[in-house]
Amino acid sequence: MYIIAAALLIALLTALFSGLLSHRNNPNKNPQTALTDSGHVQILLQRNAEGHYVANGFVNGTEVVFLLDTGATTIAVPIEMATQLSLKPGQQITTVTANGMTNAYLTNIKSVKLGEIIEYDVPAALVPNLPGGQILLGMSFLKRLDFSQRGDTLILESLQNQAR
Are 24 and 53 in contact (CB under 8 A)? Predict the structure, then answer.
């Protein structure tokens, strides 16, 4: 009886701590969206425990996890995700990443959705060996928005009126 109780307790604690760790890494699984007085969509993202802005979103209708990266010129997608996201590799380029120089392949994303902000026809790069299973949401998407930071909150606002 004690063994069963101990096993149940361990399973319960594992589930509890797994959920807490997941939230610490990505507190923006369902980004908060609001409509401004001017009719623009606004999203509020909370910084994670490591100081980064991580959020769930969609690429070509498939759910993904974004790591917002204002230092990235374009959206960087792990090449291993290309087929799943219906992305075709184009021209090969050489790019500089945090891990050094590597070859990447230009591509174009039909739709990128973060909260209720949707942008179409967004340039991206397919990058081999991009760690973490996350997509770096770079400036090819972010430059289409107004964004500012207040404390631990990043505020993203569309530059056009978007239907809800």
Answer: no
> What pLDDT sits at residue 162?
60
Q: In 83-153, where does DSSP find H-type helix? A: 139-142
Q: β-pairing, 117-127 with 135-137? A: unpaired
Distance CA 114, CA 32 (A): 10
Q: Amino acid letter at 36? A: T
Question: Between these two residues, 73 and 3, which has the higher pLDDT value?
Answer: 73
**pTM of this prediction?**
0.81
User: Exposed e or buried b for every residue in 143-159, given b needs 16+ CB within 10 A?
Assistant: ebbeeeeeeeebebbbe
Strands 75-78 and 145-150: unpaired
CA distances from 156 to 91, 135, 164 (A): 31, 18, 16
Return the bridge partners of 67, or none: 54, 136
d(CA 102, CA 115): 31
Among candidates 57, 70, 55, which has minimal Cα distance to 23? 55
Position 151 pLDDT exceeds 80: yes
Q: How far is CA 138 from CA 34, 67, 75, 90, 144, in A?
A: 22, 9, 4, 19, 11
